[in-house]
Give the backbone structure.
Amino acid sequence: MQTVTLNNGVVMPQLGFGVWQVPDDEAQPAVETALAAGYRSIDTAKLYHNEEGVGRAVRASGVPRSELFITTKLWNDEHDYDRALRAFDASLDRLGMDYVDLYLIHWPVPKQDKYRDAWKALEKVYAEGRAKAIGVSNFTVANLTRLMESSSVVPAVNQVELHPRLSQAELRAFHAERGIATEAWSPLGQGQLIGDTVVAKVADAHGRTPAQVILRWHLQLGVIAIPKSVTPSRIRENIEVFDFELSGEEMAVIDGLDARGRIGPDPDRMNWLG
Ligand code: NAD
């Protein structure tokens, strides 16, 4: 497994397993399959209502906690300092863990404009060692700049929508300047990129599947990717991406698919409190 060293020295697997839209009772078998296949990083969130299933899978797997990288996220209606601290405790309770490896603010929620209060709570759980790293998700350059003006801890990670149709070049460049790791959510474009003809041609040339080529593109771009599947064969397929390489030309061809093609919400307009 390739890793990325975050700005505080914490080591994070570059490929992880996402569990959005996986009901709690299905999360356990899916995560157990992922762990057996070799994944060591799991991405959940309070919003996903499956932190308990993730925790059960971890305990059932027998994989030592120290070998795992668990991420969860603070939901949008919990940006007050005290509420955020309580939300963090509740996530740990549901996971059945005494720390997480990464805790993220799920969305900036611009209308509410309280992510800086939430960040103070994240700084506290980080100082206590109960989150080994803290970061954000769906933050724009403007959100990140504003956050860093009023804080001493630079986010370790910004988890954003990123796939060949939305390659986020400007944001990635900003992250690189500031030492923030880029993590790609919906790395397969929620499955929409699987049928792309450009991807299919590259996949054929390598005797690989489209999903493997897209995930390989992410790895070579230097971003962290967290594909989701509940199908055991696909879960295994999506981690078999460390034994081939795309050429510079193939990377450029896939880069050419960028069309600012957002699938999920625009962070500047996402004010849903759930
Ligand atoms: P994804 O890009 O990982 O696509 C998942 C879908 O692609 C699957 O449901 C399946 O339909 C298809 N798929 C997966 N593997 C395949 C394969 N090998 N062959 C063919 N089809 C395949 O989409 P996602 O689930 O939206 O994103 C991944 C993870 O990112 C989520 O589970 C979650 O953990 C995270 N996420 C975070 C946010 C956020 O706001 N921070 C938002 C969305 C997702």
Remarks:
- The chain has one domain: 3-255.
- The two ends are 35 Å apart (CA to CA).
- The domain at 3-255 is CATH 3.20.20.100 (TIM Barrel).
